Amino acid sequence: MNHFANRSLLKEIDFTPNELEYLIDFASHLKQLKQQNIPHHYLQGKNIALLFEKSSTRTRSAFTVAATDLGAHPEFLGKNDIQFGKKESTADTAKVLGSMFDGIEYRGFAQETVEQLAQFSGVPVWNGLTDQWHPTQMIADFMTLKEHFGHLKGLTLAYVGDGRNNMGNSLLVTAAMLGVNIQIGAPTALQPSATVIAMAKKAAADSGSQVLVTADPVAAVAGADAVYTDVWISMGEDISAHERIKQLLPYQINAELIAQTGKADTIIMHCLPAYHDQKTEVGQALEAEFGVTALEITDDVFNSPQSVVFQEAENRLHSIKAIMAATLGDLFIPDQWFK
Ligand code: CP
Ligand code: NVA
């Protein structure tokens, strides 16, 4: 009996808090197996499609290595390699892939596309990022928090920057579900939608956590155990970079803002990729125009001892492995564990 059998992970709210925490703990277990070189071929003989409409370093690498470690065969299907999005509908693509592959990862634009892949393929589908949600990233991020602090409930997480993108949405809702206080600092125009805030507030009422959405970056980081940021311009956004940078400069994660947490041991998080490096051509242009050499996070904070960004990145492997093994593997995970 496997409670997770054949389920898709399309967005966090499709799972219960207990189920998300099970996946986090399972990921930690798989990390230990990997570190001790203990085989864990839960998906022996399975075939996994990796469908990417947008580019990726971590998600693609994590799915590829995770599938291989689990004994499965991963097949990368980039947007220029297949008919999808040009000559063939999502439904038809889903039916074909589902008849050959045992599971499908999708990264792309519309949440509707990943929902349709799940509806028409008949196999588990895992959302590797859409414009709305980034659920596999959440298992890695909350796993990282749990590794660092030993628990989740009662922690305070601040997310500062673009509060309306996939990361803002996912962190807001997942933290609220898992009993982590969540404080979003973003200009009014880039705050999460009323629908996502309402979803988070409902989850927070159940878990006992607090939700704060504010335009004041200092109020957002006050008392934070972890401060998180993301790129200011997400993949596929067609906006003026100049306007967005002007809008978000007061929300840059730098030493001055981190000092406002009032805590000495606040950790720094970022899903990556990050713009923190001043040694590039773009960095020089930024310095000339805005007087800054980094965007969402300064290099000193990014590389500080409190930064766990590369631990988070590694945890993408273990968490994605847990998600695939739980939903596709022949595991004993009884329903009564989740009542
Ligand atoms: N964090 C993350 O999803 O990274 P990639 O875009 O490199 O996959
Ligand atoms: N918000 C970013 C996340 C990248 C992992 C983007 O969508 O580009």
UniProtKB/TrEMBL annotation:
Coarse class of the protein's main subcellular location: cytoplasm
Q: Where is carbamoyl phosphate annotated to bind? A: S56, T57, R58, T59, Q83, R107, H134, P135, T136, Q137, C271, L272, R316
Q: Where are the transmembrane segments?
A: none
User: Where would I find the Aspartate/ornithine carbamoyltransferase Asp/Orn-binding domain in this sequence?
Assistant: 153-326
Can you state which reaction this protein catalyses?
carbamoyl phosphate + L-ornithine = L-citrulline + phosphate + H(+)
For the ligand (L-ornithine), the binding residues are: N166, D230, S234, M235
Tell me which residues make up the Aspartate/ornithine carbamoyltransferase carbamoyl-P binding domain.
7-147
Under InterPro entries, the record lists: Asp/Orn_carbamoyltranf_P-bd, Asp/Orn_carbamoylTrfase, Asp/Orn_carbamoylTrfase_sf, Asp_carbamoyltransf_Asp/Orn-bd, Orn/put_carbamltrans, OTCase_ArgI
Gene Ontology molecular function terms on file: ornithine carbamoyltransferase activity
Location in or out of the cell? Cytoplasm
Q: What is its EC number?
A: 2.1.3.3
Q: Which UniProt keywords apply?
A: Cytoplasm, Transferase
Say which enzyme class the record assigns.
Answer: transferase
Q: Which NCBIfam families match?
A: orni_carb_tr, PRK00779.1
Q: Which family does it belong to?
A: Belongs to the aspartate/ornithine carbamoyltransferase superfamily. OTCase family.
Q: What is this protein called?
A: Ornithine carbamoyltransferase
Organism listed in the record: Loigolactobacillus zhaoyuanensis
